[in-house]
Amino acid sequence: MSNLIELRLHVELVTVRDALNQAMDEELERDERVFLLGEEVAQYDGAYKVSRGLWKKYGDKRIIDTPITEMGFTGIAVGAAMAGLRPICEFMTFNFSMQAIDQVINSAAKTYYMSAGLQSVPIVFRGPNGASAGVAAQHSQCFAAWYGHCPGLKVVSPWNAEDAKGLLKSAIRDDNPVVFLENELMYGVPFEMSEESQSKDFTIPIGKAKVERQGTNTPVVKSHRLPVLNSLLTTSCVSLCQVINLRTIRPLDVDCIETSVMKTNHLVTVEGGWPQFGVGAEICARVMEGPAFNYLDAPATRVTGVDIPMPYAKILEDNSLPQIKDIIFSVKKTLNV
C-alpha cells in the first residue's frame, strides 16, 4: 500500500494542451534555433492556448504572429529550416494547411531526396486535425491519410498527454519534416503523467506504437488519436481485446501490429477519417502482404468515419464518426459472437 501511495505522489494530471506547451517551452529553451510561428500564436497565446506564455518568455523573435496567409508563412518556415533554423509552424487547423500543401509536400518533403541528401529540412507542422464539433465540412476532416501518403514526411498523431509531450520533442529534434496531428477535442483532457515523462530529457521515438492494453482477443488498432479510445479502454464488452495506440502514421510500426495479430488471430482498425484509401486500409494491406496474414482466423475489419463531408447538425455529425457501439459491433462480427 505504501508503495502505491509513493507511486501516486510521482504522478500528476496534465492536459494534452499543457503537455504540448511544456514540450515547446523546453525545446525553445534547449535550442536557440527553434522558433514558433503561425496565426495568433504570440500575443493571443494561440487560438487553442497551446502556446500560452511563450511569447512573454521568449519575445517577438522566437514566437512570431503571422498574417492570415498559410501559403506565405509556411514558405517562410520551410526556407528558415533550409537555412539552418528549426521552425515549428502552427496551422490554426490542418484544414487550412491545404493553402500551403505545395510548401509542405513539394518544398519540405521532397528537398532531402532531390538534393541527394545534402539539404535537410528540420521543421514541424503542427495544429488540430480531424473532426471538431459543430464546424461542418470545411473545418472537420482528418489529414492523416493525406500526409501519410507522401514520402519524405514523418506523420505523428498523439493521443494522451505523454504522447503529446514526448513525440513533439522528438519531432522538433528530428532533421526531417514532421507533420504533427493534434486533436482539438483532446486539448483539455487531463492524463496522468509520471515524473519521468515530465523531465526535460523525456522523448518518445517516432515510429513506435504502444500497446495500451494487453489482451487475448482481437487487437483493436486505434490507427490514430481518437477521443473514443478513452471509452474503449474501459468498455467491458471488449475487455479482452488488445488495444494498440499507433502514435505514428508514417513510418508505420508494422512489427507491433503483426506481433499483435499473430497473438490474437484477429484485427480491427479504428480511425476518424474516411474509409477509402485510409490509414486502416493501409494497415489491412500490410497485414495481408506480410507473415501475419496466415495467422488471421477471420477477415480484418475497419471502423472509420462515414464516406461523406462532415455534416453540421450534431446528430448527423455524431453518426458520421466512429462510436463505441460501432467498435463493439465490428469486434463481435470479427469474433463471430
From TrEMBL:
Q: Which GO terms describe its molecular function?
A: pyruvate dehydrogenase (acetyl-transferring) activity
Q: Name one Pfam family in it.
A: Transket_pyr
Q: Does the keyword Plastid apply?
A: no
Q: Which cofactor does it need?
A: thiamine diphosphate
Its top-level enzyme class, in one word, is oxidoreductase
Q: For this chain's UniProt record, which GO biological process terms are given?
A: glucose metabolic process; pyruvate decarboxylation to acetyl-CoA
Which chemical reaction does it catalyze?
Answer: N(6)-[(R)-lipoyl]-L-lysyl-[protein] + pyruvate + H(+) = N(6)-[(R)-S(8)-acetyldihydrolipoyl]-L-lysyl-[protein] + CO2
Task: List the keywords (alphabetical).
Answer: Carbohydrate metabolism, Glucose metabolism, Oxidoreductase, Pyruvate, Thiamine pyrophosphate
In the UniProt record, does the keyword Cell membrane occur?
Answer: no
**Any idea where the Transketolase-like pyrimidine-binding domain is?**
14-189
What the entry lists under InterPro entries is as follows:
PDHB_mito-type (IPR027110), THDP-binding (IPR029061), Transketo_C/PFOR_II (IPR009014), Transketolase-like_Pyr-bd (IPR005475), Transketolase_C (IPR033248)
- The protein's Enzyme Commission number: 1.2.4.1
Organism superkingdom = Eukaryota
Q: Which Gene3D superfamilies match?
A: 3.40.50.920, 3.40.50.970
Per UniProt, subunit arrangement is: Heterotetramer of two PDHA1 and two PDHB subunits. The heterotetramer interacts with DLAT, and is part of the multimeric pyruvate dehydrogenase complex that contains multiple copies of pyruvate dehydrogenase (E1), dihydrolipoamide acetyltransferase (DLAT, E2) and lipoamide dehydrogenase (DLD, E3). These subunits are bound to an inner core composed of about 48 DLAT and 12 PDHX molecules. Interacts with DLAT.
Which NCBIfam families does the record cross-reference, listed alphabetically? PRK09212.1 (NF006667), PRK11892.1 (NF008854)
Query: Per its database record, what is this protein's job?
Result: The pyruvate dehydrogenase complex catalyzes the overall conversion of pyruvate to acetyl-CoA and CO2. The pyruvate dehydrogenase complex catalyzes the overall conversion of pyruvate to acetyl-CoA and CO(2), and thereby links the glycolytic pathway to the tricarboxylic cycle.
Under what name is this protein listed?
Pyruvate dehydrogenase E1 component subunit beta
Taxon lineage: Eukaryota, Metazoa, Chordata, Craniata, Vertebrata
| Chain's gene name | PDHB
